[in-house]
Hints:
Elements: H1 3-12, H2 18-37, E1 42-44, E2 48-55, E3 58-61, E4 68-71, E5 74-81
Antiparallel strand pairs: 1-2, 2-5, 3-4
Amino acid sequence: MNKSQLVNAIAETSTASRSEVKKIVDSLFSIAEETLNKGEKVVISGFGVFSVAEVSERIGRNPRTGEKVKIAARRNVRFRSNMDIK
């Protein structure tokens, strides 16, 4: 499911218009991004936890040439689910 499909699904199951739902979804993602940029966790009860993890620098390989390549350190978003899928 992509973002527009999510917006459509929410609009179909609520009384809000698609444009209102799109604003809400955009706001949700924006706030989550700002929170993660601060290094804080985003906890959605009954769904999961988004957090930021530091990934250290490492050496990788170019699959085409086999040449060693330095991969820079970076920050990744991690997700841990806390819901059971039936």
